Amino acid sequence: MVTVKRSSVIQAPAEIIFRYLNEPSKLHNIYQPLIRVSDELRTLKTTRFNWEVQLLGVHFVGVADLTEVTPQREVHLQFWGGIEGNIWLRLHPSDQGTEVEVEYAYEVPAPLLHKHGQQEVIQYNIVHIEGLLTTLKQVVEEKMHLYPH
């Protein structure tokens, strides 16, 4: 299993960022490879949904469970199907803003290894996790600017 960890400080309260991350339908706005989220089913503790991603020209589909681990502070996303793994999104408020930590642990799917080397796949995912943080920062900080809390 491969694990990628990245973090970024966002100038917004953790509660605002958490609301954004806890909505599967918004995830495709911040994670470029995510093509579609559908069939959301929300229960008291978990939201299950179907997903589609395009990685290095290969299309994958699957299912994910999004669970609030710690209220307003940590979300866990477990996914399976074409790609299997976990994403933890942790929020650490401070005087400088909120540090958003992403930990992405996954199995490199065999269809990608037929066309690309493992290091190329890992680097691709690193770039897109960093992109997720950059886009989340832009979206949330712009929202804070337009609609001050």
Describe this structure in words.
By secondary structure, the protein is of the alpha+beta class. The protein has a single domain, classed as START domain (Alpha-D-Glucose-1,6-Bisphosphate, Chain A, domain 4). A 7-stranded antiparallel β-sheet has the order 1-7-6-5-4-3-2, covered by helices on one side. The radius of gyration is 15 Å and the shape is globular.
> Whole-Å distance between the termini?
40 Å
Spans of 5+ residues with little confidence (pLDDT < 50)?
A: none
H-E string: EHEEEEEEHH
From the spread of the alpha carbons, the general shape counts as globular
Question: What is the CATH third-level topology name?
Answer: Alpha-D-Glucose-1,6-Bisphosphate, Chain A, domain 4
> How is the largest sheet built, in terms of strand order?
1-7-6-5-4-3-2
Helical amount: 25-40%
What is the radius of gyration? 15 Å
Mean pLDDT: 92
